[in-house]
Amino acid sequence: MLDQSLSWSSEAIASVLEQRRFADLATVVGAPPAIGVEVGAKLLVDRDGSTIGTFGSAELDRAVVDDARTAMDERSSRVVSYPVPGMAQPDGRILVFHEVLEPQPQLLIVGAGHIAVPLAHYGKTLGFEVVVLDDRDKYANRERFPDADQVMAADFGGTLQDFPLTAATYVVIITRAHTYDEESLRLILNKPTAYIGMIGSRRRVQTVLRTLAGEGYDRERLSAIHAPIGLDIGSETPEEIALAIIAEVVAVRRGGTGVPLSKQIRPVSMETAAGL
Amino acid sequence: MASLGEMLEEAKRRTESGERLAMATIVRTRGSTPRSVGARMLVFEDGLFMGTVGGGCGESDVLHATMDAIENGKPTLLLVDLTADEAEESGDVCGGVMDVFIEPLGTR
Description:
Chain A contains nine helices and ten strands. Chain A has 276 residues and is an alpha/beta fold. Chain A folds into two domains: 80 residues, no CATH class; 149 residues, Rossmann fold. In chain A, the strands form two sheets. A five-stranded antiparallel β-sheet of chain A has the order 3-2-1-5-4, sandwiched between helices. Chain A has a five-stranded parallel β-sheet with strand order 8-7-6-9-10, with helices on both faces. Chain B has one domain. The model of chain B has no long low-confidence stretch (mean pLDDT 87). Chain B is built from three helices and five strands.
């Protein structure tokens, strides 16, 4: 089937969804006749700026890519009207529907111990697809994780080797021993992920990172790992630790700093705010 | 509720076996509509469909227009008016207006 133009049946769109890429699928929903731009034509704009397809006009493509950036930043789909390119007295406008395809984020919890239970639950509440992995079926089972999307009682290494990690996957490594943490990290470090966090004391974390650095893993990627995991909220119980972890995950997802709002620099003085 | 991914898989399967179908997507809304921008239906030659653009409110108009698009192979932007005057005839009371883009899929 001739597929010069991007259509719903193209591989590109299916692959964007599968790989959980954040993209804007722009479609011409209205256009004056005979201007070289077809109603139904599509342009797929990835969050990273790359594109697939074309409307048949470089000028229009560029304008749409600019607006796609805004639509994705604002996370809102919209119809935008464009002038007909190359016409001095344009008669009519081109209407383009920017459909923001925001992927559902995935929370991959490696290690199904005490912290994993509330963490899985919080993840679901916050809209994540939740996957739990542990090699002990006494821990990785439906009874303990009733609302998780997937619970896998399987070998860490073998499973992570084949697991389809994506740019919208947030990996939380909370296994029972640093050897499993290491094994897991080895398998995910060189793949696309949105976040990797690892639990442990500073000593445990250092041991793991030093070992991996020694094995030649890229130092930048190693230093991007959030370890020790979570925001500092003084957590003590498993639920509190899970909360600190999920808060950090959301902060990374939404671009938040994790700093209290009350401590941030404000343009207005406290007196003005208090109405004095 | 069928996800976009599921609809695309179904569309692919059907177009590969030579069927004609069409997709209807809400692209703009003003006032109150039962579904929001991005809601869509995949409609098949026999009139059966996956997904929804609003049930009682305007969906049958969309369905008819989509069946037409399957026949004539022409994409179209349909304005669906759900404000009071229109609603009296069909019994829908939704108050708003929505633009639905209808595009045929498969061989023309």
